[in-house]
């Protein structure tokens, strides 16, 4: 019995030691999964791992700052690098949840142009993140379904003319903007209207009109699934998800670009990360001309001008940059100020 | 129930058969979800439904690709390793502490017996979300959030009630005079415990340990709150898969888990029979 | 004389012996008790404390709170106090903590977070001396809300380290202006949620009873070989992972799922039914998951009932239903109460299944606690909601212990 016990204790100690070691080495990178995550894995994570020998745990999340905030405030930071939508970036940055990224770590483009000129200005506008993609929130429908085809955001809110469930991401961002546009507010005025008490009431009232027809989802990956299995007839989605369902899986989905809300995603480093240096090394690698060009696989535009030569020209029509005139730029500053207030109001509205 | 008594009227007979059919209906309800998952996991297409090809029993509509997907995905492999490791360590911890405690608890002179029993069993009753929130607040102070140690401790606490229940049940058939005899012959309580009590209650201890293992193996709420990316477990991986990207890999994992449950069930049955036999020889 | 002295001696040594045995028994339990106190009791205690103790604001702006101490709370606070706050806010903006403050104040006064954040951004560029002399005016220029005493009152109230506010919120109440408690504006959110949770738990309990009682009766009275075989069909689901069973219900109930295919294929329904992500799917899946908890205690009690009682009653001419109600049912009460209480207690605190199949409609109180832990980061409100849930569970557990005995739980 005694020897058995000793053996058990020995093995346990060994196992724990090896676990502790494994823990020390690998860095955790968090992004949105699905087709986008697969593209990042192929063009950024795997080459970086192969080149530097660093281990990376690649995790999925569904966006927002809550999880980062919980880690930073509780003082146990689990994530190192996170892909954040710029609509959330300013808030996370101003609340001290992210490390400041020194911009001199960013290499010049493959054509030799310095990083500061090579990046589109929005991509390096924040001290807390470096742009990865230009993407857009659109809505899509199943082209194989019978009946009229929706063409505008007003159609999305018109359940009489277009019956069926609408799938929306469970957060106030973008949904409130769309509600106002559908209610007749000019895209240019959306944020100034939404900053007023009346504007907020108006947006929620508009959402109320379709509340019973909304299917809520948490993660972008669910959007094409809902469209595919008939859970919703129109879905809000990141454009790349639908693009990939059309191109890769041959789905008869159609994207509606009217009033799309375009935004950037950035790589950021969680404040207090123990692997800050590796994290910076990763970001400077992943935002090189070539890795960024890989994001066009899923119809997300690169944030460096020098990436353009690597991008297959046939995809240009599907990039958000080809539709900017129909779109609205997501306002990260607005959401930094109003995220709390509108978030709470949105939750209460949901529970009612 | 083969032949019905003579005094049975028509209504008795109707009652008898409707009871029988109700029972079978409920059994079907209990088994359906378990049975349905197995064929679905061999779907050649990335859906959760039976395709036309599957219904026509076309071999091309079936495939083992989702099983291959599990074993070629680093995240699944890590979570399988973690589930077994955390489960084994947590079960060991709760079995050792729980067995010793059960011996004290089954003593007729144990002070505050009822209160302490209720306390020791409470991890089974308190909602997991409350435990998870509390542990998240408290374990953070000791740097236990996002560590293996934290999860092992948390899961061991959850497993304790099951060990207490099974071991005290075995001890209730245990003849205390054996223990007292050992003590009166001058052996220390620890020695008597180790040499006399343990061998006799071993089946109960092992099944308690299995219960504790399964509790940890199946647990996901505490993992969601306390684990870091390194400590992902099978249920955690399934949970996020169901929330984010539903694909049949989850069904393949589920089928494997059903096989594990069958193995556990058989083991427990064997243990139960052995325990009954041992008790039988005592009387 | 002598016999009684001997007696006293005997009693004393017997007492000593008893004390020694009590101590030994306790020492066996002690390691586990210590472990559970650390691993389980202390965390729950921490949660209870967290629901009332929240010193964040008092640590962020101690000087402002000091300056607001003598303010009557009626008119605008004195200019000096406002200037102190302006300086505090600028410092916080520099330390990137103004967002934290805004979040906290917003809980007391919804809508104030944008005021504080936007002002903090503007103040960050101001000169210290300027702020010290005209802080109040600068604030008012940044946002008109600073001229309303309401926000100042919210700041002062949020500064209290100990607060019953989270319990009030959890009960849909708020502090009235003149002291006292009043219902919060808007719909009742959390009280409705507690009632909904109890209602769902009740549905599940009733359903498991309706299905479980006849099955347990059938199994208890079937031939033992047959019964053992059928018992496997109860135990296998019981031992199968919760996630597996929930996964399976998703496959069964989704729009293009198995049930809908059968229904439309058989021509029973024209278009697929919306079953997944509703309260219906939550109740159905949880009934399935908790059914064994009802069957097992019923079965073990019914197994011990001699069938000759019923037979005797019926052979003497009693009708089956009265015979059942008068004779059989009372004898199964111990198993019945154990099953009912166990299923009810477990369902009230359930999280995973509603989270996965409940959609918006099927969310229970645990899901909202998780939401405030993980999404809205309002940990204090989560703690208050959790404490109320815990209180409910403890009452039920006490009832269970009274009537069934916590130690009598049977596992398979």
List keywords for this structure.
heterotrimer; A: 352 residues; D-Maltodextrin-Binding Protein, domain 2; 2 domains; ten-stranded mixed β-sheet; 14 helices; globular; C: MetI-like fold; two-stranded antiparallel ribbon; 19 helices; 2 strands; transport (chain A); SBP (chain A); periplasm (chain A); ABC transporter substrate-binding protein (chain A); signal (chain A)
Topology:
The complex is a heterotrimer of chains A (352), B (283) and C (412).
Chain A (H helix, E strand, L loop, with lengths): L1 H24 L1 E5 L2 H19 L3 E5 L5 H9 L6 E5 H9 L20 H4 L10 E14 L10 H4 L9 E4 L5 H8 L7 H5 L2 H14 L3 E4 L4 H7 L5 E5 H9 L5 E17 L6 H11 L2 H5 L7 E2 L25 E2 L2 H20 L1
Parallel strand pairs in A: 1-2, 1-3, 5-6, 5-7, 8-10
Antiparallel strand pairs in A: 3-8, 4-7, 4-8, 4-9
Helix pairs in contact in A: 4-14, 7-9
Chain B lengths: L9 H31 L11 H4 L9 H7 L2 H32 L7 H9 L6 H13 L7 H25 L3 H9 L4 H30 L2 H6 L7 H10 L5 H34 L1
Helix pairs in contact in B: 1-12, 3-12, 4-7, 4-9, 4-11, 7-9, 8-9, 9-12
Chain C lengths: L1 H49 L5 H5 L1 H6 L11 H16 L3 H11 L3 H12 L4 H15 L6 H10 L6 H6 L2 E3 L5 E3 L6 H32 L2 H16 L2 H12 L4 H8 L13 H25 L4 H8 L4 H29 L3 H6 L7 H10 L4 H25 L9
Antiparallel strand pairs in C: 1-2
Helix pairs in contact in C: 1-19, 4-6, 4-7, 5-6, 5-8, 6-7, 10-11, 10-14, 10-16, 11-14, 12-14, 14-16, 15-16, 16-19, 18-19
State the shape of chain C. extended
Give the ordered list of helices and strands of chain C: HHHHHHHHHEEHHHHHHHHHH
Series of H and E elements of chain B: HHHHHHHHHHHH
Give the CATH topology of chain B. Answer: MetI-like fold
Q: What is the beta-strand fraction of chain C?
A: under 5%
* Name of the CATH superfamily of the largest domain in chain C: MetI-like
Number of helices of chain B: 12
Tell me the count of domains of chain B.
Answer: 1
Ends of chain B: how far apart?
32 Å
The CATH class assignment of chain B is Mainly Alpha
């Amino acid at each position: 019995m005694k020897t058995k016990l000793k053996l058990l204790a020995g093995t346990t100690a060994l196992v724990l030691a090896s676990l502790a070691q494994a823990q020390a080495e690998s860095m955790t990178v968090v992004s949105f999964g699905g087709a986008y995550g697969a593209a990042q894995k192929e063009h950024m994570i795997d080459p970086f791992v192969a080149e530097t020998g660093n281990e990376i745990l690649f995790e999925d999340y569904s966006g927002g700052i809550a999880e980062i905030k919980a880690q930073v405030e509780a003082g146990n930071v689990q994530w190192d690098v996170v892909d954040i939508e710029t609509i959330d970036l300013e808030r996370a940055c101003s609340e001290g949840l992210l490390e400041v990224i020194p911009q001199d770590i960013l290499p010049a483009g493959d054509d030799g142009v310095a990083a500061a000129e090579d990046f589109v200005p929005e991509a390096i506008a924040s001290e807390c993140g470096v742009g990865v993609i230009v993407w857009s929130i659109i809505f899509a429908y199943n082209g194989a379904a019978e009946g009229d085809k929706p063409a505008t955001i007003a159609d999305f809110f018109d359940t009489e003319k277009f019956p069926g469930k609408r799938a929306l991401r469970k957060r106030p961002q973008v949904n409130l903007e769309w509600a106002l546009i559908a209610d007749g507010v000019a895209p240019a005025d959306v944020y100034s209207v939404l900053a007023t008490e009346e504007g907020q009431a108006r947006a929620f009232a508009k959402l109320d009109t379709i509340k019973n027809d909304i299917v809520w989802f948490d993660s972008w990956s669910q959007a094409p699934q809902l469209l595919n299995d008939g859970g919703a007839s129109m879905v809000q989605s990141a454009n790349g998800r639908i693009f990939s369902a059309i191109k890769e899986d041959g789905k008869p989905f159609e994207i509606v670009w009217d009033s799309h809300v375009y935004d950037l995603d950035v790589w950021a480093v969680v404040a207090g990360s123990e692997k800050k240096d590796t994290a910076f090394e990763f970001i400077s690698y992943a935002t090189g001309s070539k890795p960024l060009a890989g994001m066009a696989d899923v119809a997300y535009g690169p944030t460096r001008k020098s990436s353009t030569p690597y991008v297959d020209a046939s995809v240009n029509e599907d990039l958000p940059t080809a539709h900017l005139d129909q779109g609205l730029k997501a306002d990260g500053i607005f959401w930094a100020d109003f995220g709390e207030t509108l978030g709470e109001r949105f939750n209460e509205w949901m529970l009612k | 129930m083969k032949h019905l008594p003579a005094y049975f009227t028509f209504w008795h007979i109707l009652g008898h058969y409707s009871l029988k059919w109700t029972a079978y209906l409920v059994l079907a309800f209990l088994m359906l979800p378990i049975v349905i998952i197995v064929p679905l996991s061999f779907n050649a297409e990335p859906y959760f439904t039976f395709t036309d090809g599957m219904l026509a029993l076309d071999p091309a509509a079936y495939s083992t690709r989702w099983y291959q997907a599990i074993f070629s995905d680093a995240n699944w492999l890590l979570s399988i390793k973690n589930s077994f490791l955390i489960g084994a360590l947590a079960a060991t911890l709760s079995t050792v502490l729980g067995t010793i405690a059960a011996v004290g608890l089954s003593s007729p002179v144990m002070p505050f017996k009822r209160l302490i029993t209720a306390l020791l069993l409470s991890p089974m009753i308190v909602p997991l979300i409350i435990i998870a929130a509390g542990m998240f607040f408290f374990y953070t102070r000791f740097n236990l959030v996002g560590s293996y140690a934290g999860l092992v401790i948390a899961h061991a606490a959850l497993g304790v009630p099951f060990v207490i229940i099974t071991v005290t049940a075995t001890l209730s058939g245990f003849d205390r005079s054996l223990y007292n005899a050992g003590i009166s012959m001058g052996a220390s309580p620890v020695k008597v415990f180790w040499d006399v009590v343990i061998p006799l209650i071993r089946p109960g201890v092992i099944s308690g340990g299995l219960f504790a293992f399964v509790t940890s193996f199946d647990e996901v709420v505490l993992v969601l709150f306390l684990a870091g990316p390194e400590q992902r477990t099978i249920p955690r991986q399934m949970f996020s898969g169901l929330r984010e990207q539903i694909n049949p890999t989850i069904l393949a994992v589920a089928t494997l888990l059903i096989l594990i449950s069958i193995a556990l069930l058989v083991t427990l049955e064997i243990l139960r029979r052995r325990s009954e036999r041992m008790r039988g020889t005592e009387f | 004389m002598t016999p009684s002295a001997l007696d006293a001696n005997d009693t004393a040594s017997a007492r000593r012996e008893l004390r020694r045995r009590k101590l030994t028994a306790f020492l066996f339990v002690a390691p586990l008790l210590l472990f559970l106190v650390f691993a389980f009791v202390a965390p729950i205690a921490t949660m209870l404390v967290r629901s009332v103790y929240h010193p964040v604001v008092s640590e962020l702006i101690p000087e402002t709170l000091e300056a607001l101490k003598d303010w009557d709370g009626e008119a605008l606070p004195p200019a000096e106090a406002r200037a102190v706050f302006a300086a505090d806010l600028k410092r916080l903006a520099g330390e990137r903590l103004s967002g934290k403050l805004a979040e906290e104040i917003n809980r007391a006064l919804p809508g104030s977070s944008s005021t504080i954040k936007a002002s903090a951004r503007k103040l960050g560029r101001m000169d210290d001396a300027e702020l010290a002399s005209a802080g109040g005016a600068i604030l008012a220029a940044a946002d008109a809300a600073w001229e309303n005493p309401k926000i100042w009152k919210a700041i002062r109230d949020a500064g209290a380290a100990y607060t019953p506010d989270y319990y009030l919120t959890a009960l849909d109440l708020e502090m009235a202006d003149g002291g006292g408690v009043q219902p919060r504006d808007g719909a009742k959110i959390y009280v409705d949620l507690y009632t909904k949770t109890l209602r769902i738990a009740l549905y599940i309990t009733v359903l498991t009873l309706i299905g479980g009682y006849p099955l347990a009766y059938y199994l208890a009275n079937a031939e033992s070989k047959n019964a053992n075989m059928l018992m496997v069909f109860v135990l296998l689901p019981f031992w199968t992972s919760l996630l597996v069973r929930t996964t399976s219900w998703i496959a069964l109930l989704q729009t293009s799922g198995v049930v809908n295919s059968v229904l439309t294929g058989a021509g029973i329904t024209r278009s697929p039914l919306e079953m997944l992500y509703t309260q219906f799917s939550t109740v159905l899946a949880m009934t399935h998951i908790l059914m064994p908890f009802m069957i097992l205690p019923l079965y073990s009690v019914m197994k011990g009932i001699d069938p000759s009682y019923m037979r005797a009653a019926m052979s003497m001419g009693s009708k089956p239903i009265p015979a059942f109600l008068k004779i059989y049912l009372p004898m199964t009460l111990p198993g019945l109460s154990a099953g009912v209480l166990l299923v009810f207690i477990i369902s009230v605190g359930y999280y995973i299944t509603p989270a996965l199949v409940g959609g918006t409609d099927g969310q229970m109180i645990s899901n909202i606690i998780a939401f405030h832990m993980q999404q809205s980061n309002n940990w204090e409100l989560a703690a208050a909601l959790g404490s109320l849930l815990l209180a409910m569970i403890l009452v039920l557990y006490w009832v269970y212990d009274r009537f069934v005995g916590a130690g009598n739980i049977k596992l398979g």
